[in-house]
Amino acid sequence: MLDDLRAERLKKLERYRERFDPYPATVKRSTTIKGVLDEFSKLEESKREESVTGRLVAWRDQGKIVFGNIEDETGKIQVVLHDGETDDLDFMKTVIDIGDFVEVGGTVFVTKRGERSLQVRHIRIITKSLLPLPVTWYGLDDTETRLRKRYLDAIIRPEVKELFRKKSAFWSATRALLVSDGFFEVETPILEAVPGGAEAEPFMTHMKALDQDLSLRISLELPLKKMLVGGFDRVFEIGRIFRNEGIDKEHLQDYTQMECYAAYWDYEDMMRFVEKLYKQVIMDVFGTLSLPSGGTMIEWGNAWPKVDYYEIFKRETGVDLSTAVAEDLKKKAHDLHLDTTKVIGRGKLIDLIYKKAVRPKLVQPCFLIDPPVDVEPLAKRLTKDHDRVARFQILAAGTELGKGFSELNDPLDQRQRFEVQMSLRAAGDTEAERLDESFLEALEYGMPPAAGFGMSERLFAVLADKPVREAVFFPLMKHETN
Fold first, then answer.
1. Which end of the chain has less Cβ packing within 10 Å, N or C?
2. pTM for this predicted structure
3. Quick one: CA torsion of 49, 55, 57, 63, rounded to 10 degrees?
4. Residue 271: which of 187, 395, 377, 387 has the closest Cα?
5. CA distance 266 to 272
6. How far apart are CA 97 and CA 92, in angstroms?
7. Residue spans in the chain of domains classed CATH 2.40.50.140
8. pLDDT digit string, tens, across residues 291-346
9. Which CATH class is domain 2-137?
10. Can you name the residues that pair with 254 across neighbouring β-strands?
11. Cα separations (Å) of 153 from 103, 190, 345, 457?
12. How far apart are CA 74 and CA 69, in angstroms?
Protein backbone atom coordinates (compact mmCIF):
# COMPACT_ATOMS: atom_id res chain seq x y z
CA MET A 1 0.00 0.00 0.00
CA LEU A 2 2.78 2.42 0.88
CA ASP A 3 4.50 1.72 -2.44
CA ASP A 4 1.28 2.54 -4.28
CA LEU A 5 0.89 5.83 -2.41
CA ARG A 6 4.49 6.77 -3.17
CA ALA A 7 4.04 5.91 -6.86
CA GLU A 8 1.01 8.20 -7.04
CA ARG A 9 2.95 11.04 -5.44
CA LEU A 10 5.79 10.56 -7.91
CA LYS A 11 3.30 11.08 -10.74
CA LYS A 12 2.10 14.30 -9.07
CA LEU A 13 5.72 15.39 -8.67
CA GLU A 14 6.42 15.03 -12.37
CA ARG A 15 3.18 16.80 -13.24
CA TYR A 16 4.12 19.73 -11.02
CA ARG A 17 7.73 19.74 -12.26
CA GLU A 18 6.49 20.34 -15.82
CA ARG A 19 5.38 23.83 -14.74
CA PHE A 20 7.24 24.70 -11.55
CA ASP A 21 10.26 23.72 -9.47
CA PRO A 22 9.02 21.42 -6.66
CA TYR A 23 12.16 22.08 -4.60
CA PRO A 24 13.00 25.81 -5.00
CA ALA A 25 16.10 27.21 -3.31
CA THR A 26 14.39 30.38 -2.11
CA VAL A 27 10.94 31.09 -0.73
CA LYS A 28 8.90 34.14 0.08
CA ARG A 29 8.15 34.26 3.80
CA SER A 30 7.19 37.61 5.23
CA THR A 31 6.36 36.30 8.72
CA THR A 32 5.73 33.18 10.77
CA ILE A 33 2.31 31.74 11.49
CA LYS A 34 2.62 32.98 15.06
CA GLY A 35 3.44 36.41 13.63
CA VAL A 36 0.18 36.38 11.66
CA LEU A 37 -1.86 35.28 14.67
CA ASP A 38 -0.20 37.79 17.02
CA GLU A 39 -0.84 40.68 14.63
CA PHE A 40 -4.16 39.40 13.35
CA SER A 41 -6.32 42.43 14.21
CA LYS A 42 -3.87 44.87 12.64
CA LEU A 43 -3.54 42.74 9.52
CA GLU A 44 -7.29 42.38 9.21
CA GLU A 45 -7.73 46.14 9.41
CA SER A 46 -4.92 47.01 6.99
CA LYS A 47 -5.74 44.23 4.48
CA ARG A 48 -1.98 43.81 4.06
CA GLU A 49 -1.01 40.60 2.31
CA GLU A 50 1.36 38.29 4.14
CA SER A 51 3.23 35.23 2.94
CA VAL A 52 3.77 32.24 5.23
CA THR A 53 5.33 28.83 4.76
CA GLY A 54 4.89 25.48 6.42
CA ARG A 55 3.77 21.88 6.10
CA LEU A 56 0.26 21.18 4.84
CA VAL A 57 -1.38 19.05 7.53
CA ALA A 58 -5.00 19.15 6.37
CA TRP A 59 -6.72 19.53 2.97
CA ARG A 60 -10.52 19.47 2.66
CA ASP A 61 -11.71 19.92 -0.95
CA GLN A 62 -15.35 21.05 -1.10
CA GLY A 63 -15.49 21.83 -4.80
CA LYS A 64 -15.23 25.56 -5.38
CA ILE A 65 -13.70 26.08 -1.94
CA VAL A 66 -10.88 24.29 -0.16
CA PHE A 67 -10.05 24.45 3.55
CA GLY A 68 -6.59 23.49 4.71
CA ASN A 69 -4.23 23.82 7.64
CA ILE A 70 -0.59 24.87 7.46
CA GLU A 71 1.83 24.35 10.33
CA ASP A 72 5.29 25.70 11.05
CA GLU A 73 7.30 25.50 14.27
CA THR A 74 5.49 28.51 15.69
CA GLY A 75 1.90 27.42 15.18
CA LYS A 76 -0.92 26.38 12.85
CA ILE A 77 -3.40 28.40 10.80
CA GLN A 78 -6.36 27.58 8.60
CA VAL A 79 -6.06 28.57 4.94
CA VAL A 80 -9.03 29.05 2.64
CA LEU A 81 -8.75 28.76 -1.14
CA HIS A 82 -11.55 29.84 -3.52
CA ASP A 83 -12.05 28.92 -7.16
CA GLY A 84 -11.43 32.07 -9.20
CA GLU A 85 -9.65 33.88 -6.35
CA THR A 86 -6.70 31.55 -5.75
CA ASP A 87 -4.21 31.29 -8.62
CA ASP A 88 -3.98 27.86 -10.30
CA LEU A 89 -6.33 26.24 -7.79
CA ASP A 90 -7.66 23.61 -10.21
CA PHE A 91 -4.11 22.60 -11.06
CA MET A 92 -2.94 22.62 -7.44
CA LYS A 93 -5.74 20.22 -6.51
CA THR A 94 -4.24 17.64 -8.87
CA VAL A 95 -0.69 17.81 -7.50
CA ILE A 96 -0.83 18.75 -3.83
CA ASP A 97 -0.82 16.30 -0.89
CA ILE A 98 -0.96 16.47 2.86
CA GLY A 99 2.65 16.55 4.00
CA ASP A 100 3.86 18.92 1.28
CA PHE A 101 5.61 22.10 2.33
CA VAL A 102 3.87 25.08 0.75
CA GLU A 103 4.16 28.83 0.46
CA VAL A 104 0.89 30.76 0.61
CA GLY A 105 0.17 34.46 0.29
CA GLY A 106 -3.02 36.29 1.13
CA THR A 107 -4.98 38.35 3.62
CA VAL A 108 -6.46 37.38 6.94
CA PHE A 109 -10.14 37.13 7.82
CA VAL A 110 -12.43 35.43 10.32
CA THR A 111 -14.74 32.68 9.06
CA LYS A 112 -18.45 32.45 9.91
CA ARG A 113 -17.49 29.89 12.55
CA GLY A 114 -15.13 32.41 14.12
CA GLU A 115 -11.85 30.80 13.06
CA ARG A 116 -8.97 33.09 12.22
CA SER A 117 -7.86 32.18 8.71
CA LEU A 118 -5.79 33.21 5.71
CA GLN A 119 -7.59 33.93 2.43
CA VAL A 120 -5.10 32.52 -0.08
CA ARG A 121 -4.31 34.42 -3.29
CA HIS A 122 -1.18 32.51 -4.25
CA ILE A 123 0.03 29.03 -3.39
CA ARG A 124 2.99 26.95 -4.49
CA ILE A 125 4.70 23.77 -3.41
CA ILE A 126 8.19 24.38 -2.03
CA THR A 127 8.91 20.75 -1.07
CA LYS A 128 6.97 17.85 -2.53
CA SER A 129 6.68 14.96 -0.06
CA LEU A 130 6.85 11.48 -1.55
CA LEU A 131 5.73 9.55 1.52
CA PRO A 132 2.47 10.21 3.39
CA LEU A 133 2.51 11.21 7.03
CA PRO A 134 1.93 8.28 9.43
CA VAL A 135 -1.45 9.55 10.58
CA THR A 136 -2.72 9.07 7.02
CA TRP A 137 -1.59 5.47 6.51
CA TYR A 138 -0.43 3.34 9.48
CA GLY A 139 -0.30 5.50 12.57
CA LEU A 140 2.74 5.75 14.83
CA ASP A 141 1.86 3.90 18.01
CA ASP A 142 4.76 1.45 18.26
CA THR A 143 7.52 2.81 20.53
CA GLU A 144 10.37 1.33 18.50
CA THR A 145 8.99 2.88 15.30
CA ARG A 146 8.54 6.26 16.99
CA LEU A 147 12.15 6.26 18.20
CA ARG A 148 13.53 5.17 14.83
CA LYS A 149 11.55 7.86 13.01
CA ARG A 150 11.46 10.58 15.65
CA TYR A 151 11.07 13.27 13.00
CA LEU A 152 7.64 11.80 12.22
CA ASP A 153 6.86 11.54 15.93
CA ALA A 154 7.58 15.26 16.24
CA ILE A 155 5.28 16.07 13.31
CA ILE A 156 2.22 14.33 14.67
CA ARG A 157 2.74 14.77 18.42
CA PRO A 158 3.24 18.37 19.57
CA GLU A 159 4.31 17.18 23.03
CA VAL A 160 7.50 15.76 21.51
CA LYS A 161 8.57 19.20 20.34
CA GLU A 162 7.75 20.61 23.77
CA LEU A 163 9.84 17.89 25.46
CA PHE A 164 12.93 18.86 23.50
CA ARG A 165 12.35 22.57 24.00
CA LYS A 166 12.38 21.87 27.72
CA LYS A 167 15.52 19.79 27.37
CA SER A 168 17.27 22.68 25.64
CA ALA A 169 16.07 25.01 28.40
CA PHE A 170 17.37 22.52 31.00
CA TRP A 171 20.94 22.69 29.72
CA SER A 172 20.73 26.44 29.11
CA ALA A 173 19.62 27.03 32.70
CA THR A 174 22.37 24.74 34.00
CA ARG A 175 25.02 26.59 32.01
CA ALA A 176 23.71 30.01 33.07
CA LEU A 177 23.83 29.19 36.80
CA LEU A 178 27.33 27.71 36.56
CA VAL A 179 28.63 30.76 34.72
CA SER A 180 26.93 33.15 37.16
CA ASP A 181 28.67 31.34 40.04
CA GLY A 182 32.09 31.85 38.51
CA PHE A 183 32.65 28.56 36.67
CA PHE A 184 34.60 28.74 33.42
CA GLU A 185 33.25 26.65 30.53
CA VAL A 186 35.81 24.59 28.61
CA GLU A 187 35.96 21.90 25.94
CA THR A 188 38.18 18.84 26.29
CA PRO A 189 38.99 16.10 23.75
CA ILE A 190 36.55 13.31 22.93
CA LEU A 191 39.33 11.02 21.68
CA GLU A 192 41.62 9.77 24.45
CA ALA A 193 44.68 7.53 24.62
CA VAL A 194 43.57 6.21 28.03
CA PRO A 195 39.84 6.33 28.88
CA GLY A 196 39.37 7.31 32.51
CA GLY A 197 37.21 9.00 35.10
CA ALA A 198 34.59 6.25 35.33
CA GLU A 199 34.18 2.51 35.57
CA ALA A 200 32.87 1.78 32.10
CA GLU A 201 33.86 0.00 28.91
CA PRO A 202 34.79 2.40 26.09
CA PHE A 203 34.21 2.44 22.36
CA MET A 204 37.49 2.04 20.51
CA THR A 205 38.67 3.55 17.24
CA HIS A 206 41.91 3.94 15.30
CA MET A 207 43.57 7.16 14.20
CA LYS A 208 45.33 6.65 10.87
CA ALA A 209 47.48 9.79 11.05
CA LEU A 210 49.21 8.61 14.23
CA ASP A 211 48.65 4.89 13.64
CA GLN A 212 47.30 4.78 17.18
CA ASP A 213 44.33 3.13 18.86
CA LEU A 214 42.15 5.61 20.74
CA SER A 215 38.95 5.48 22.74
CA LEU A 216 35.94 7.75 22.92
CA ARG A 217 35.85 9.36 26.34
CA ILE A 218 33.77 7.73 29.08
CA SER A 219 33.94 10.75 31.39
CA LEU A 220 34.95 14.41 31.45
CA GLU A 221 36.73 14.12 34.78
CA LEU A 222 40.47 13.72 34.33
CA PRO A 223 41.08 16.52 31.76
CA LEU A 224 39.04 18.93 33.88
CA LYS A 225 41.05 18.09 36.99
CA LYS A 226 44.24 18.71 34.99
CA MET A 227 42.89 22.23 34.46
CA LEU A 228 42.79 22.70 38.23
CA VAL A 229 46.47 21.75 38.20
CA GLY A 230 46.91 24.43 35.53
CA GLY A 231 45.56 27.16 37.79
CA PHE A 232 41.87 27.41 36.90
CA ASP A 233 39.80 27.55 40.09
CA ARG A 234 36.37 26.61 38.73
CA VAL A 235 35.74 24.80 35.45
CA PHE A 236 32.88 22.92 33.83
CA GLU A 237 32.02 21.17 30.61
CA ILE A 238 28.73 20.07 29.08
CA GLY A 239 29.56 17.44 26.47
CA ARG A 240 28.94 14.02 25.00
CA ILE A 241 30.43 10.89 26.55
CA PHE A 242 30.33 7.33 25.25
CA ARG A 243 30.00 4.05 27.13
CA ASN A 244 29.84 0.62 25.56
CA GLU A 245 27.25 -0.76 27.94
CA GLY A 246 23.75 -2.21 27.96
CA ILE A 247 20.51 -0.59 26.84
CA ASP A 248 17.71 -0.07 29.34
CA LYS A 249 15.34 2.65 30.51
CA GLU A 250 18.15 4.48 32.36
CA HIS A 251 21.23 3.97 30.14
CA LEU A 252 22.38 5.23 26.76
CA GLN A 253 25.56 4.54 24.85
CA ASP A 254 26.19 8.21 24.02
CA TYR A 255 24.74 11.01 26.07
CA THR A 256 25.28 14.50 27.40
CA GLN A 257 26.92 15.00 30.76
CA MET A 258 27.86 18.04 32.81
CA GLU A 259 30.85 17.95 35.13
CA CYS A 260 32.13 20.83 37.25
CA TYR A 261 35.16 21.18 39.53
CA ALA A 262 35.88 23.82 42.15
CA ALA A 263 39.26 24.31 43.79
CA TYR A 264 39.29 24.86 47.55
CA TRP A 265 35.85 23.27 47.98
CA ASP A 266 35.11 19.97 49.69
CA TYR A 267 32.10 17.74 49.09
CA GLU A 268 30.05 19.61 51.69
CA ASP A 269 30.50 22.84 49.70
CA MET A 270 29.57 20.99 46.51
CA MET A 271 26.43 19.50 48.07
CA ARG A 272 25.20 22.95 49.02
CA PHE A 273 25.90 24.23 45.52
CA VAL A 274 24.26 21.41 43.58
CA GLU A 275 21.11 21.46 45.72
CA LYS A 276 20.77 25.11 44.79
CA LEU A 277 21.57 24.31 41.17
CA TYR A 278 18.96 21.56 40.86
CA LYS A 279 16.20 23.52 42.52
CA GLN A 280 16.77 26.62 40.41
CA VAL A 281 17.04 24.70 37.12
CA ILE A 282 13.92 22.65 37.86
CA MET A 283 11.93 25.76 38.71
CA ASP A 284 13.22 27.62 35.64
CA VAL A 285 12.33 24.78 33.26
CA PHE A 286 9.22 23.20 34.78
CA GLY A 287 7.78 26.04 36.85
CA THR A 288 7.32 23.84 39.92
CA LEU A 289 9.41 21.82 42.37
CA SER A 290 6.78 19.07 42.65
CA LEU A 291 7.03 16.70 39.70
CA PRO A 292 5.63 13.19 39.09
CA SER A 293 7.98 10.32 38.31
CA GLY A 294 6.80 6.76 37.81
CA GLY A 295 3.51 7.45 39.56
CA THR A 296 5.09 9.13 42.61
CA MET A 297 5.24 12.87 43.28
CA ILE A 298 8.85 13.92 43.87
CA GLU A 299 9.22 16.96 46.11
CA TRP A 300 12.40 18.66 44.98
CA GLY A 301 11.73 21.78 47.04
CA ASN A 302 12.24 20.15 50.44
CA ALA A 303 15.63 20.18 52.18
CA TRP A 304 17.62 17.15 51.02
CA PRO A 305 18.70 14.93 53.93
CA LYS A 306 22.09 13.22 54.10
CA VAL A 307 21.76 9.43 54.22
CA ASP A 308 24.76 7.45 55.48
CA TYR A 309 25.72 4.69 53.00
CA TYR A 310 26.75 2.20 55.70
CA GLU A 311 23.68 2.78 57.84
CA ILE A 312 21.10 2.36 55.09
CA PHE A 313 22.98 -0.58 53.58
CA LYS A 314 22.85 -2.39 56.94
CA ARG A 315 19.21 -1.43 57.49
CA GLU A 316 18.06 -2.74 54.10
CA THR A 317 20.35 -5.79 53.78
CA GLY A 318 21.47 -6.72 57.28
CA VAL A 319 25.12 -6.52 56.13
CA ASP A 320 27.58 -4.37 58.09
CA LEU A 321 30.05 -3.02 55.54
CA SER A 322 32.57 -2.14 58.22
CA THR A 323 33.20 -5.86 58.82
CA ALA A 324 31.75 -7.69 55.79
CA VAL A 325 34.13 -9.64 53.58
CA ALA A 326 33.57 -10.87 50.04
CA GLU A 327 31.98 -14.15 51.13
CA ASP A 328 29.40 -12.30 53.27
CA LEU A 329 28.51 -10.15 50.29
CA LYS A 330 28.28 -13.13 47.94
CA LYS A 331 25.88 -14.85 50.34
CA LYS A 332 23.66 -11.76 50.49
CA ALA A 333 23.73 -11.46 46.68
CA HIS A 334 22.67 -15.12 46.44
CA ASP A 335 19.81 -14.46 48.88
CA LEU A 336 18.69 -11.62 46.59
CA HIS A 337 18.87 -13.95 43.55
CA LEU A 338 21.64 -11.88 41.95
CA ASP A 339 24.11 -13.35 39.49
CA THR A 340 27.66 -12.85 40.74
CA THR A 341 29.49 -15.04 38.22
CA LYS A 342 30.92 -12.03 36.37
CA VAL A 343 31.28 -9.75 39.40
CA ILE A 344 34.90 -9.18 40.36
CA GLY A 345 36.02 -7.45 43.56
CA ARG A 346 34.40 -6.36 46.80
CA GLY A 347 33.36 -2.97 45.42
CA LYS A 348 31.37 -4.47 42.55
CA LEU A 349 29.62 -6.87 44.95
CA ILE A 350 28.64 -3.99 47.20
CA ASP A 351 27.38 -1.98 44.24
CA LEU A 352 25.38 -4.92 42.88
CA ILE A 353 23.59 -5.44 46.21
CA TYR A 354 23.10 -1.70 46.71
CA LYS A 355 21.39 -1.29 43.33
CA LYS A 356 19.00 -4.16 44.07
CA ALA A 357 18.17 -3.68 47.75
CA VAL A 358 18.95 -0.07 48.67
CA ARG A 359 18.67 2.31 45.73
CA PRO A 360 15.00 1.62 44.91
CA LYS A 361 14.04 2.65 48.46
CA LEU A 362 15.41 6.20 48.02
CA VAL A 363 12.47 7.93 46.38
CA GLN A 364 12.55 11.50 47.64
CA PRO A 365 15.65 13.61 46.93
CA CYS A 366 18.57 12.96 49.26
CA PHE A 367 22.35 12.81 49.44
CA LEU A 368 23.73 9.30 49.89
CA ILE A 369 27.14 9.88 51.48
CA ASP A 370 30.41 8.25 52.53
CA PRO A 371 30.52 4.86 50.76
CA PRO A 372 33.40 2.35 51.02
CA VAL A 373 36.63 3.21 49.23
CA ASP A 374 36.15 -0.01 47.22
CA VAL A 375 33.39 1.60 45.13
CA GLU A 376 35.05 4.95 44.35
CA PRO A 377 38.70 5.03 43.24
CA LEU A 378 38.85 8.79 42.57
CA ALA A 379 37.50 10.29 45.82
CA LYS A 380 39.42 11.47 48.89
CA ARG A 381 39.29 9.25 51.97
CA LEU A 382 37.38 10.45 55.03
CA THR A 383 39.65 11.79 57.76
CA LYS A 384 37.68 9.92 60.40
CA ASP A 385 37.62 6.58 58.52
CA HIS A 386 40.14 5.76 55.80
CA ASP A 387 38.04 2.84 54.57
CA ARG A 388 35.39 5.29 53.37
CA VAL A 389 35.43 8.18 50.91
CA ALA A 390 33.99 11.69 50.89
CA ARG A 391 31.48 11.04 48.09
CA PHE A 392 27.83 11.88 47.65
CA GLN A 393 25.23 10.70 45.21
CA ILE A 394 21.96 12.47 44.54
CA LEU A 395 19.20 9.89 44.77
CA ALA A 396 15.55 10.42 43.82
CA ALA A 397 12.83 8.30 42.22
CA GLY A 398 14.90 5.24 43.11
CA THR A 399 17.82 6.11 40.85
CA GLU A 400 21.11 7.99 40.84
CA LEU A 401 20.83 11.51 39.44
CA GLY A 402 24.28 12.95 40.08
CA LYS A 403 27.52 12.20 41.86
CA GLY A 404 30.26 14.28 43.45
CA PHE A 405 33.10 14.05 45.91
CA SER A 406 36.11 15.64 47.50
CA GLU A 407 38.70 14.95 44.83
CA LEU A 408 41.65 12.72 45.57
CA ASN A 409 44.77 14.85 45.04
CA ASP A 410 47.35 12.60 46.72
CA PRO A 411 49.25 11.17 43.71
CA LEU A 412 50.63 8.21 45.70
CA ASP A 413 47.21 7.16 47.00
CA GLN A 414 45.77 7.64 43.51
CA ARG A 415 48.45 5.45 41.96
CA GLN A 416 47.79 2.72 44.52
CA ARG A 417 44.07 2.80 43.79
CA PHE A 418 44.68 2.70 40.05
CA GLU A 419 46.87 -0.35 40.60
CA VAL A 420 44.05 -2.06 42.49
CA GLN A 421 41.75 -1.27 39.58
CA MET A 422 44.26 -2.67 37.11
CA SER A 423 44.45 -5.91 39.11
CA LEU A 424 40.65 -6.14 38.79
CA ARG A 425 41.00 -5.62 35.03
CA ALA A 426 43.56 -8.40 34.91
CA ALA A 427 41.06 -10.63 36.70
CA GLY A 428 38.44 -9.93 34.03
CA ASP A 429 36.63 -6.74 35.08
CA THR A 430 36.42 -4.89 31.75
CA GLU A 431 34.88 -1.80 33.40
CA ALA A 432 37.60 -1.24 36.00
CA GLU A 433 39.58 2.01 35.87
CA ARG A 434 42.81 2.17 33.85
CA LEU A 435 46.06 3.53 35.19
CA ASP A 436 46.64 6.90 33.53
CA GLU A 437 50.27 7.99 33.82
CA SER A 438 49.62 11.44 32.33
CA PHE A 439 47.01 12.17 35.01
CA LEU A 440 49.27 10.89 37.77
CA GLU A 441 52.08 13.09 36.49
CA ALA A 442 49.75 16.11 36.60
CA LEU A 443 48.84 15.29 40.21
CA GLU A 444 52.52 15.15 41.12
CA TYR A 445 52.84 18.80 40.05
CA GLY A 446 50.09 19.49 42.59
CA MET A 447 46.32 19.81 42.36
CA PRO A 448 44.67 22.02 44.99
CA PRO A 449 42.06 20.59 47.33
CA ALA A 450 38.88 20.47 45.25
CA ALA A 451 35.40 19.05 44.86
CA GLY A 452 33.83 17.77 41.66
CA PHE A 453 30.35 16.86 40.50
CA GLY A 454 28.72 15.29 37.46
CA MET A 455 25.18 14.81 36.22
CA SER A 456 23.80 13.44 32.98
CA GLU A 457 20.67 13.85 30.93
CA ARG A 458 19.15 11.01 32.97
CA LEU A 459 18.17 13.78 35.39
CA PHE A 460 16.14 15.52 32.70
CA ALA A 461 14.46 12.24 31.74
CA VAL A 462 13.36 11.65 35.34
CA LEU A 463 12.15 15.24 35.67
CA ALA A 464 10.16 14.82 32.45
CA ASP A 465 8.91 11.42 33.66
CA LYS A 466 10.21 9.65 30.55
CA PRO A 467 12.49 6.66 29.93
CA VAL A 468 15.86 8.12 28.98
CA ARG A 469 15.61 6.90 25.36
CA GLU A 470 12.33 8.83 25.00
CA ALA A 471 14.17 12.01 26.01
CA VAL A 472 16.74 11.65 23.21
CA PHE A 473 15.85 12.72 19.70
CA PHE A 474 17.69 9.92 17.87
CA PRO A 475 18.66 7.11 20.28
CA LEU A 476 20.89 4.37 18.97
CA MET A 477 18.74 1.48 17.75
CA LYS A 478 19.41 -2.08 16.66
CA HIS A 479 19.41 -2.55 12.90
CA GLU A 480 16.01 -3.44 11.50
CA THR A 481 15.75 -6.92 10.00
CA ASN A 482 13.42 -7.91 7.19
1. C
2. 0.91
3. 50
4. 395
5. 10
6. 9
7. 2-137
8. 999 999 999 999 999 999 999 999 999 999 999 998 999 999 999 999 998 888 89
9. mainly beta
10. 242
11. 23, 31, 44, 21
12. 13
